[in-house]
Amino acid sequence: MPTVLWFRRDLRLTDHPALLAATRDGAPVVPLFVVDPRLVAAAGAPRLVRLAASLRALDESLGGTLVLRTGAAEVVVPAVAREVAATEVHVSASTEPYGRRRDAAVETGLDVPLVRTGSPYAVAPGRLRTQQGTPYSVFTPFRRAWERHGWSAPAASAGGVTWERLSGDGWAALPRPDDGGVPGDDEAGERAAGTAWDRFVDGALRDYATERDRPDRPGTSRLSAALKLGEVHPRTLLARLEQAVAADPELAAAAEVFTGQLAWREFHADVLWHRPEAAHRSLRAVVHDEAWARGADADAAFAAWAAGRTGYPLVDAGMRQLAATGWMHNRVRMVTASFLVKDLHLDWRRGAAHFMAQLVDGDVAQNQLNWQWVAGTGFDAAPYFRVLNPVTQSQRFDPDGAYVHRWVPELRDVPAPAVHQPWTLGERAPGDYPAPMVDHATERRAALEAYGRGR
């Protein structure tokens, strides 16, 4: 009798504990992905393009047997299980609020067990506790506990799997390869993720500690979308880092910094596990709700920010990169977020919603908690008085203006250092680039006053 392997955030065949569990008795497996209209509606177009490309890559690795069915998961999954008389349905455990509710509903509708094995994280959210038995709310102690706990080695590969073929109607609900959009198929899938990771470890990892904050250089792994979709598991990355350091101890410092970034990812997932309201509510009331700007002027300011027309080159470059590619460098994400919240005084939730609609790597835990970090409303957040200066950030992390030149064509003929604040050129400033929409020093003081009143 077959089993069903319901793919979600685990679109790969290696290091896949749920796949091993589904095949432990040698049973044939139905590889299922549910195209739930609710998730399609919530995902922006770039993320759907990326998802479709990843699913096509997975289907190819499955020999064309991936079953895509359209409908609510709590209806589709039990129906498929009954259709094939499955003995079990296997999944990697969901940890985000919606996924947990969805899985509970699916489990209620099934006549067979829903077997959860593994999760998208090296250490499953909810597993770590302080000595007092409470969840962690500060990153550094969490990271120490996370590293002490450790993680399993990558799971063995499942060999000789018999994949069951079923009809499916789900492909029609997803973008086709010729529909355009970003990114292309060559950037998606388990194989592409593995190639990108090997290339990073063999190259950019060496200078990661210093280069990761430089948007003008290829200093990051660019694996955020692959991690979101589960084309690669963080456990696999950690094992490869350990091997790289063993072969070349000089990589130890850089590997430690990269490991810290994975730990932040797992910390945010853990916070959301314990505090699901963090997806839509501030965890700390450091500013009163009435302090957020509202009305027509606020809407116009938001539109200028989203379009990359603020008059601050680094902010505008980041927002245009996001619109064009569905991705933005992490340092620039912080700068653009800080500008929206602390220069324009707009609610962090507006910015978070825009990012989720645009990002190919949009992930509720990472997106919402990182926005709260910048806004100063989350756990272990940046202090409320930390306001990123878009000019000094540009001067420090894009000193030659290469990143700004790439994404803001109006400024391509403006050399550094003037490119970081072109308004200082006076009449020689490009006429088609806007003047700064606000004065940063003035708005910084206003933000600090508002935050001070809310404390």
Quick recap of the structure?
The protein is mostly helical. It has helices at residues 17-22, 37-42, 45-61, 73-83, 97-109, 139-149, 190-202, 208-211, 224-229, 234-247, 252-274, 296-307, 313-325, 330-343, 348-358, 364-375, 390-397, 402-407, 440-454; strands at residues 3-7, 29-35, 67-70, 89-91, 114-116. The chain folds into three domains: 3-119, HUPs (Rossmann fold); 121-153 and 191-274, Serine Threonine Protein Phosphatase 5, Tetratricopeptide repeat; 289-454, DNA Cyclobutane Dipyrimidine Photolyase, subunit A, domain 3.
Overview of this structure, please?
By secondary structure, the chain is mainly α. The protein folds into three domains: 3-119, 3-Layer(aba) Sandwich (Rossmann fold), CATH 3.40.50.620; 121-153 and 191-274, Serine Threonine Protein Phosphatase 5, Tetratricopeptide repeat (Alpha Horseshoe); 289-454, DNA Cyclobutane Dipyrimidine Photolyase, subunit A, domain 3 (Orthogonal Bundle). It is 47% helix and 5% strand. It has helices at residues 17-22, 37-42, 45-61, 73-83, 97-109, 139-149, 190-202, 208-211, 224-229, 234-247, 252-274, 296-307, 313-325, 330-343, 348-358, 364-375, 390-397, 402-407, 440-454, and strands at 3-7, 29-35, 67-70, 89-91, 114-116. Strands 3-2-1-4-5 form a five-stranded parallel β-sheet. Strand 1, helix 1 (17-22) and strand 2 form a beta-alpha-beta unit. 43% of the residues are buried. The model has no long low-confidence stretch (mean pLDDT 94).
